[in-house]
Amino acid sequence: MKKSGPCCRCPSLKPSRNTAQFYLLFLLIALYMLVGALVFSSLERPAELQAHRLWEKRSEDFAHKHGISLGELKSLLRHYEEARISGVRTEQGRALWDLPGAFYFVGTVVSTIGFGVSAPSTVAGKILLVFYGLLGCSASILFFNLFLERVITLLTNILLRCRRNGPAAQVQEKRAEGNKPLKPSIYQLSLILFAVVMLVACAAASLYSAMEGWTYLESLYFCFVAFSTVGFGDLVSGQRAQHGETRAYQVANCLLMLLGVCCMYSLFNSIAVIIKQALSWLLGTLERLYNTIGDCRRQLRPLFKFCIPESNTCYCDDKSPNKKHTIAVYSSDHGTYGKAHIVTISNRNMTSTFEVITGATTPSAGRVNSHFPTTHLLFSDGSNVAER
Protein backbone atom coordinates (compact mmCIF):
# COMPACT_ATOMS: atom_id res chain seq x y z
CA MET A 1 0.00 0.00 0.00
CA LYS A 2 1.47 3.34 -1.07
CA LYS A 3 1.84 5.93 1.64
CA SER A 4 0.79 9.50 1.14
CA GLY A 5 -0.12 12.60 3.13
CA PRO A 6 -2.74 12.82 5.86
CA CYS A 7 -6.11 11.35 5.04
CA CYS A 8 -8.18 14.34 6.02
CA ARG A 9 -8.02 18.07 6.28
CA CYS A 10 -8.23 18.49 10.02
CA PRO A 11 -7.43 21.81 11.73
CA SER A 12 -3.85 22.06 12.97
CA LEU A 13 -3.38 21.80 16.71
CA LYS A 14 -0.14 23.81 16.55
CA PRO A 15 -0.71 27.22 18.20
CA SER A 16 0.31 30.47 16.57
CA ARG A 17 3.48 32.28 17.60
CA ASN A 18 1.56 34.88 19.66
CA THR A 19 -0.45 32.17 21.42
CA ALA A 20 2.69 30.21 22.17
CA GLN A 21 4.30 33.35 23.59
CA PHE A 22 1.25 33.93 25.79
CA TYR A 23 1.30 30.41 27.25
CA LEU A 24 5.07 30.39 27.67
CA LEU A 25 4.98 33.77 29.43
CA PHE A 26 2.20 32.54 31.70
CA LEU A 27 4.25 29.49 32.69
CA LEU A 28 7.39 31.57 33.25
CA ILE A 29 5.51 34.10 35.40
CA ALA A 30 3.98 31.28 37.45
CA LEU A 31 7.43 29.73 37.91
CA TYR A 32 8.89 33.15 38.76
CA MET A 33 6.19 33.71 41.39
CA LEU A 34 6.73 30.25 42.85
CA VAL A 35 10.47 30.79 43.19
CA GLY A 36 9.87 34.25 44.67
CA ALA A 37 7.37 32.86 47.17
CA LEU A 38 9.85 30.21 48.30
CA VAL A 39 12.66 32.73 48.70
CA PHE A 40 10.61 35.37 50.54
CA SER A 41 8.99 32.74 52.73
CA SER A 42 12.39 31.44 53.80
CA LEU A 43 13.54 35.00 54.53
CA GLU A 44 10.48 36.51 56.21
CA ARG A 45 8.67 33.60 57.89
CA PRO A 46 11.10 33.25 60.83
CA ALA A 47 10.85 36.99 61.54
CA GLU A 48 7.05 36.78 61.41
CA LEU A 49 6.92 33.93 63.92
CA GLN A 50 9.32 35.72 66.21
CA ALA A 51 7.22 38.92 66.04
CA HIS A 52 4.07 36.96 66.92
CA ARG A 53 5.74 35.32 69.92
CA LEU A 54 7.06 38.68 71.13
CA TRP A 55 3.66 40.32 70.74
CA GLU A 56 1.88 37.57 72.66
CA LYS A 57 4.39 37.86 75.49
CA ARG A 58 4.06 41.64 75.64
CA SER A 59 0.25 41.43 75.62
CA GLU A 60 0.20 38.92 78.45
CA ASP A 61 2.68 40.96 80.49
CA PHE A 62 0.70 44.17 79.95
CA ALA A 63 -2.59 42.52 80.90
CA HIS A 64 -1.06 41.00 84.02
CA LYS A 65 0.64 44.25 85.03
CA HIS A 66 -2.49 46.40 84.74
CA GLY A 67 -4.92 43.81 86.04
CA ILE A 68 -7.06 43.45 82.92
CA SER A 69 -8.00 40.37 80.99
CA LEU A 70 -6.30 39.52 77.73
CA GLY A 71 -9.69 39.51 75.97
CA GLU A 72 -10.41 43.10 77.02
CA LEU A 73 -7.01 44.20 75.76
CA LYS A 74 -7.57 42.57 72.37
CA SER A 75 -11.00 44.16 72.13
CA LEU A 76 -9.42 47.58 72.65
CA LEU A 77 -6.81 46.84 70.00
CA ARG A 78 -9.53 45.85 67.52
CA HIS A 79 -11.21 49.22 68.07
CA TYR A 80 -7.88 50.90 67.42
CA GLU A 81 -7.45 49.03 64.14
CA GLU A 82 -10.86 50.29 63.03
CA ALA A 83 -9.93 53.84 64.06
CA ARG A 84 -6.70 53.75 62.03
CA ILE A 85 -8.77 53.86 58.83
CA SER A 86 -9.97 57.32 59.84
CA GLY A 87 -6.43 58.53 60.53
CA VAL A 88 -6.19 57.88 64.27
CA ARG A 89 -2.57 57.18 65.28
CA THR A 90 -0.80 56.60 68.57
CA GLU A 91 1.44 59.55 67.70
CA GLN A 92 0.02 62.81 66.45
CA GLY A 93 0.35 63.07 62.68
CA ARG A 94 -0.81 65.40 59.96
CA ALA A 95 -4.48 65.55 59.05
CA LEU A 96 -5.46 63.05 56.38
CA TRP A 97 -8.54 64.70 54.94
CA ASP A 98 -7.75 68.39 54.84
CA LEU A 99 -7.11 69.77 51.36
CA PRO A 100 -3.37 68.84 51.20
CA GLY A 101 -4.07 65.42 52.69
CA ALA A 102 -6.94 64.76 50.28
CA PHE A 103 -4.77 65.89 47.36
CA TYR A 104 -2.09 63.43 48.48
CA PHE A 105 -4.75 60.70 48.62
CA VAL A 106 -6.08 61.29 45.10
CA GLY A 107 -2.47 61.40 43.88
CA THR A 108 -1.90 57.89 45.20
CA VAL A 109 -5.17 56.79 43.57
CA VAL A 110 -4.62 58.08 40.02
CA SER A 111 -0.96 56.99 40.05
CA THR A 112 -2.10 53.50 41.22
CA ILE A 113 0.34 53.63 44.16
CA GLY A 114 -2.25 53.20 46.90
CA PHE A 115 -0.19 53.32 50.10
CA GLY A 116 -3.22 52.51 52.21
CA VAL A 117 -2.51 55.18 54.81
CA SER A 118 -5.83 56.86 54.12
CA ALA A 119 -8.95 55.30 52.64
CA PRO A 120 -12.60 56.37 52.42
CA SER A 121 -14.64 55.36 55.45
CA THR A 122 -18.05 56.61 54.30
CA VAL A 123 -20.28 54.75 51.84
CA ALA A 124 -20.50 57.78 49.55
CA GLY A 125 -16.72 58.12 49.53
CA LYS A 126 -16.22 54.46 48.60
CA ILE A 127 -18.73 54.67 45.75
CA LEU A 128 -17.16 57.89 44.46
CA LEU A 129 -13.70 56.32 44.58
CA VAL A 130 -14.73 53.56 42.13
CA PHE A 131 -15.72 55.97 39.37
CA TYR A 132 -13.05 58.54 40.22
CA GLY A 133 -10.30 55.93 40.08
CA LEU A 134 -11.63 54.45 36.84
CA LEU A 135 -11.24 57.73 34.98
CA GLY A 136 -8.16 58.94 36.83
CA CYS A 137 -6.12 55.74 36.42
CA SER A 138 -6.96 55.56 32.70
CA ALA A 139 -5.85 59.16 32.19
CA SER A 140 -2.64 58.50 34.13
CA ILE A 141 -1.75 55.48 31.99
CA LEU A 142 -2.29 57.61 28.88
CA PHE A 143 -0.04 60.28 30.38
CA PHE A 144 2.67 57.69 31.11
CA ASN A 145 2.53 56.43 27.51
CA LEU A 146 2.82 59.96 26.15
CA PHE A 147 5.73 60.56 28.50
CA LEU A 148 7.49 57.50 27.06
CA GLU A 149 6.90 58.79 23.53
CA ARG A 150 8.45 62.12 24.47
CA VAL A 151 11.47 60.34 25.94
CA ILE A 152 11.96 58.34 22.73
CA THR A 153 11.63 61.51 20.63
CA LEU A 154 14.16 63.31 22.83
CA LEU A 155 16.68 60.48 22.57
CA THR A 156 16.15 60.28 18.80
CA ASN A 157 16.93 63.98 18.42
CA ILE A 158 20.02 63.64 20.58
CA LEU A 159 21.30 60.70 18.53
CA LEU A 160 20.56 62.54 15.30
CA ARG A 161 22.55 65.58 16.43
CA CYS A 162 25.44 63.37 17.51
CA ARG A 163 25.49 61.70 14.10
CA ARG A 164 25.38 65.00 12.29
CA ASN A 165 28.29 66.34 14.31
CA GLY A 166 30.33 63.20 13.64
CA PRO A 167 32.80 62.54 10.82
CA ALA A 168 31.50 62.95 7.27
CA ALA A 169 32.29 59.33 6.47
CA GLN A 170 29.87 58.09 9.09
CA VAL A 171 27.16 60.38 7.78
CA GLN A 172 27.63 59.09 4.24
CA GLU A 173 27.57 55.53 5.50
CA LYS A 174 24.30 56.11 7.28
CA ARG A 175 22.79 57.71 4.20
CA ALA A 176 23.82 54.71 2.10
CA GLU A 177 21.90 52.41 4.36
CA GLY A 178 18.64 53.97 3.22
CA ASN A 179 16.24 56.53 4.50
CA LYS A 180 15.30 54.57 7.60
CA PRO A 181 14.18 56.61 10.62
CA LEU A 182 16.93 56.93 13.20
CA LYS A 183 15.69 55.66 16.56
CA PRO A 184 17.49 54.35 19.62
CA SER A 185 17.46 50.61 20.10
CA ILE A 186 15.40 49.10 22.87
CA TYR A 187 18.59 48.24 24.76
CA GLN A 188 19.86 51.82 24.59
CA LEU A 189 16.47 53.10 25.71
CA SER A 190 16.33 50.67 28.64
CA LEU A 191 19.85 51.57 29.75
CA ILE A 192 19.12 55.30 29.62
CA LEU A 193 15.82 54.91 31.46
CA PHE A 194 17.47 52.77 34.12
CA ALA A 195 20.11 55.46 34.65
CA VAL A 196 17.41 58.15 34.92
CA VAL A 197 15.40 56.08 37.42
CA MET A 198 18.48 55.51 39.56
CA LEU A 199 19.34 59.22 39.43
CA VAL A 200 15.83 60.26 40.49
CA ALA A 201 15.69 57.57 43.19
CA CYS A 202 19.05 58.55 44.67
CA ALA A 203 18.11 62.24 44.73
CA ALA A 204 14.73 61.48 46.28
CA ALA A 205 16.27 59.14 48.83
CA SER A 206 18.57 61.94 50.01
CA LEU A 207 15.55 64.19 50.55
CA TYR A 208 13.47 61.53 52.32
CA SER A 209 16.36 60.49 54.52
CA ALA A 210 16.71 64.07 55.76
CA MET A 211 13.00 64.85 56.13
CA GLU A 212 11.56 61.55 57.33
CA GLY A 213 14.35 60.30 59.59
CA TRP A 214 14.83 57.10 57.59
CA THR A 215 18.12 55.50 56.73
CA TYR A 216 19.33 55.96 53.17
CA LEU A 217 18.67 52.29 52.39
CA GLU A 218 15.12 52.59 53.72
CA SER A 219 14.64 55.69 51.59
CA LEU A 220 15.82 53.84 48.44
CA TYR A 221 13.47 50.98 49.28
CA PHE A 222 10.59 53.44 49.64
CA CYS A 223 11.44 55.05 46.30
CA PHE A 224 11.25 51.74 44.46
CA VAL A 225 8.01 50.73 46.20
CA ALA A 226 6.44 54.10 45.40
CA PHE A 227 7.79 54.57 41.86
CA SER A 228 6.79 51.05 40.84
CA THR A 229 3.26 51.75 42.23
CA VAL A 230 3.49 48.73 44.53
CA GLY A 231 2.77 50.91 47.56
CA PHE A 232 2.97 48.59 50.56
CA GLY A 233 2.34 51.41 53.02
CA ASP A 234 4.95 50.35 55.57
CA LEU A 235 6.86 53.56 54.79
CA VAL A 236 4.93 56.64 53.65
CA SER A 237 6.37 60.08 53.07
CA GLY A 238 4.88 63.36 54.28
CA GLN A 239 2.81 61.97 57.16
CA ARG A 240 4.52 63.56 60.15
CA ALA A 241 2.88 66.42 62.00
CA GLN A 242 5.56 68.96 61.11
CA HIS A 243 5.18 68.19 57.40
CA GLY A 244 1.81 69.91 57.35
CA GLU A 245 3.54 73.27 57.58
CA THR A 246 6.31 72.46 55.09
CA ARG A 247 4.66 73.36 51.79
CA ALA A 248 7.90 73.21 49.82
CA TYR A 249 8.50 69.63 50.93
CA GLN A 250 4.95 68.64 50.00
CA VAL A 251 5.35 70.08 46.50
CA ALA A 252 8.76 68.43 46.08
CA ASN A 253 7.33 65.12 47.30
CA CYS A 254 4.51 65.20 44.73
CA LEU A 255 6.83 66.17 41.88
CA LEU A 256 9.32 63.44 42.76
CA MET A 257 6.51 60.88 42.91
CA LEU A 258 5.20 61.95 39.51
CA LEU A 259 8.62 61.94 37.86
CA GLY A 260 9.61 58.65 39.47
CA VAL A 261 6.40 56.86 38.45
CA CYS A 262 6.69 58.11 34.85
CA CYS A 263 10.30 56.98 34.53
CA MET A 264 9.65 53.62 36.18
CA TYR A 265 6.61 52.97 33.99
CA SER A 266 8.69 53.73 30.88
CA LEU A 267 11.44 51.41 32.11
CA PHE A 268 8.92 48.63 32.68
CA ASN A 269 7.61 49.04 29.14
CA SER A 270 11.07 48.86 27.61
CA ILE A 271 11.98 45.79 29.67
CA ALA A 272 8.70 44.17 28.59
CA VAL A 273 9.75 44.57 24.94
CA ILE A 274 13.08 42.88 25.72
CA ILE A 275 11.27 40.03 27.46
CA LYS A 276 9.04 39.58 24.41
CA GLN A 277 12.09 39.42 22.17
CA ALA A 278 13.62 36.83 24.49
CA LEU A 279 10.44 34.75 24.33
CA SER A 280 10.53 34.88 20.51
CA TRP A 281 14.14 33.74 20.53
CA LEU A 282 13.33 30.92 22.97
CA LEU A 283 10.40 29.72 20.87
CA GLY A 284 12.53 29.85 17.73
CA THR A 285 15.24 27.83 19.43
CA LEU A 286 12.72 25.22 20.59
CA GLU A 287 11.22 25.03 17.12
CA ARG A 288 14.62 24.53 15.49
CA LEU A 289 15.44 21.86 18.05
CA TYR A 290 12.15 20.10 17.35
CA ASN A 291 12.77 20.19 13.59
CA THR A 292 16.30 18.85 14.08
CA ILE A 293 14.99 15.93 16.11
CA GLY A 294 12.37 15.27 13.44
CA ASP A 295 15.02 15.26 10.70
CA CYS A 296 17.14 12.83 12.68
CA ARG A 297 14.17 10.51 13.15
CA ARG A 298 13.40 10.56 9.45
CA GLN A 299 17.02 9.79 8.61
CA LEU A 300 17.15 6.89 11.06
CA ARG A 301 13.73 5.47 10.14
CA PRO A 302 15.05 3.22 7.30
CA LEU A 303 17.37 1.54 9.79
CA PHE A 304 14.43 0.41 11.91
CA LYS A 305 11.80 -0.33 9.27
CA PHE A 306 12.34 -4.06 9.66
CA CYS A 307 12.07 -3.85 13.44
CA ILE A 308 9.25 -1.34 13.92
CA PRO A 309 6.07 -1.69 11.79
CA GLU A 310 5.06 1.43 9.92
CA SER A 311 1.90 3.01 11.15
CA ASN A 312 -0.20 5.96 10.10
CA THR A 313 -2.56 7.69 12.49
CA CYS A 314 -4.87 10.48 11.41
CA TYR A 315 -7.92 12.20 12.79
CA CYS A 316 -11.08 12.70 10.76
CA ASP A 317 -14.57 14.07 11.07
CA ASP A 318 -17.48 11.83 10.21
CA LYS A 319 -19.61 13.52 7.49
CA SER A 320 -22.35 10.90 7.59
CA PRO A 321 -25.92 11.61 8.72
CA ASN A 322 -25.19 9.66 11.92
CA LYS A 323 -22.77 12.47 12.89
CA LYS A 324 -20.32 10.00 14.43
CA HIS A 325 -16.79 11.24 15.05
CA THR A 326 -13.92 9.00 14.06
CA ILE A 327 -11.21 9.22 16.66
CA ALA A 328 -8.33 7.43 14.86
CA VAL A 329 -7.49 5.31 11.86
CA TYR A 330 -4.63 2.87 12.33
CA SER A 331 -3.12 0.75 9.56
CA SER A 332 -0.42 -1.89 9.81
CA ASP A 333 1.42 -4.03 7.28
CA HIS A 334 0.95 -7.10 9.49
CA GLY A 335 -2.09 -8.49 7.69
CA THR A 336 -3.49 -12.02 7.53
CA TYR A 337 -2.78 -12.26 3.81
CA GLY A 338 0.38 -11.32 2.00
CA LYS A 339 -1.18 -8.42 0.07
CA ALA A 340 -3.74 -7.29 2.63
CA HIS A 341 -3.72 -4.58 5.28
CA ILE A 342 -5.60 -4.66 8.55
CA VAL A 343 -7.35 -1.30 9.10
CA THR A 344 -8.87 -0.53 12.49
CA ILE A 345 -11.32 2.37 12.79
CA SER A 346 -12.42 3.56 16.23
CA ASN A 347 -15.13 6.02 17.17
CA ARG A 348 -16.86 6.98 20.38
CA ASN A 349 -19.23 4.00 20.36
CA MET A 350 -17.50 0.99 18.77
CA THR A 351 -14.46 -0.35 16.94
CA SER A 352 -14.47 -2.08 13.55
CA THR A 353 -11.69 -4.01 11.79
CA PHE A 354 -11.62 -4.78 8.07
CA GLU A 355 -9.11 -5.74 5.39
CA VAL A 356 -8.12 -3.60 2.40
CA ILE A 357 -6.33 -5.23 -0.56
CA THR A 358 -3.25 -3.30 -1.73
CA GLY A 359 -4.01 -1.07 -4.71
CA ALA A 360 -7.79 -1.34 -4.26
CA THR A 361 -9.86 1.41 -5.83
CA THR A 362 -13.40 0.31 -4.94
CA PRO A 363 -15.17 -0.13 -1.62
CA SER A 364 -15.83 -3.82 -2.41
CA ALA A 365 -12.13 -4.56 -2.05
CA GLY A 366 -12.44 -4.31 1.69
CA ARG A 367 -14.11 -7.05 3.73
CA VAL A 368 -15.68 -5.56 6.85
CA ASN A 369 -15.51 -7.87 9.87
CA SER A 370 -18.13 -6.01 11.92
CA HIS A 371 -20.83 -3.42 11.43
CA PHE A 372 -19.66 0.18 11.62
CA PRO A 373 -21.59 3.47 11.29
CA THR A 374 -21.36 5.30 7.96
CA THR A 375 -17.83 6.70 7.74
CA HIS A 376 -15.80 8.32 4.98
CA LEU A 377 -12.34 6.76 4.76
CA LEU A 378 -9.65 7.90 2.36
CA PHE A 379 -7.35 5.01 1.36
CA SER A 380 -3.73 5.61 2.22
CA ASP A 381 -2.83 5.62 -1.49
CA GLY A 382 -5.15 8.61 -1.91
CA SER A 383 -7.07 6.96 -4.75
CA ASN A 384 -10.57 6.66 -3.36
CA VAL A 385 -12.97 7.50 -0.54
CA ALA A 386 -14.84 4.45 0.65
CA GLU A 387 -18.21 4.86 2.26
CA ARG A 388 -19.35 2.21 4.72
UniProtKB/TrEMBL annotation:
Record bears the keyword Ubl conjugation: no
Reaction(s) catalysed (UniProt annotation): K(+)(in) = K(+)(out)
Recorded topology in the membrane: Multi-pass membrane protein
Keyword annotations from UniProtKB, A to Z: Cell membrane, Ion channel, Ion transport, Membrane, Metal-binding, Potassium, Potassium channel, Potassium transport, Transmembrane, Transmembrane helix, Transport, Voltage-gated channel
UniProt-recorded Gene Ontology molecular function terms: metal ion binding; outward rectifier potassium channel activity; potassium ion leak channel activity
GO biological-process terms attached to the record: stabilization of membrane potential
Places the protein is found: Cell membrane
All copies of domain Potassium channel, residue ranges: 91-151, 196-275
Segments crossing the lipid bilayer: 22-43, 102-121, 127-148, 189-208, 214-236, 248-268
InterPro entries per UniProt: 2pore_dom_K_chnl, 2pore_dom_K_chnl_THIK, K_chnl_dom
Domain of life from the UniProt record: Eukaryota
Record carries keyword Metal-binding: yes
GO CC annotation, single: plasma membrane
Cross-referenced Pfam families: Ion_trans_2
Stated family: Belongs to the two pore domain potassium channel (TC 1.A.1.8) family.
Name this protein carries in UniProt: Potassium channel subfamily K member 13-like
Name of the encoding gene: si:ch211-261a10.5
